[in-house]
Design brief:
Blueprint lengths: L2 E5 L2 E4 L4 E8 L7 E7 L6 E6 L6 E3 L7 E6 L4 E6 L8 E8 L17 E2 L3 E6 L1
Parallel strand pairs: 2-11
Antiparallel strand pairs: 1-3, 3-8, 4-5, 4-9, 5-6, 7-8, 9-10, 9-11
Amino acid sequence: QVQLQESGGGLVQAGGSLRLSCAVSGRTLSTYAIGWFRQAPGKEREFVSVISWSGGSIRYLDSVKGRFTISRDNAKSMVYLQMKSLSADDTASYYCAADPTNRAPLGQFHREWSYKYWGQGTQVTVSS
């Protein structure tokens, strides 16, 4: 069984930055693709970013390109989402998810069903 735990959310002013962390336990992280999704109140959960096990394949939601950076440290079983130039539109609960097949980054990376394990989420609130 794989467990994912997000952290790093909080309240930030528009234009500010936050770094989200996803701690993976229960299995070796190094073979998993890890994605980030978010869900704003009243909206469906949407894909934000994904990184392959090697870090060689990365995808982003168009609206976060140039502002968000995904990275991973397999030795520490951690995945990060650095977010800058935040706006009220980025307010949401952010979830990390694991794809044991590592196919998501080159396939249906934006689909929730591409990921098998999910964390509980961390809230990001951007005040304008």
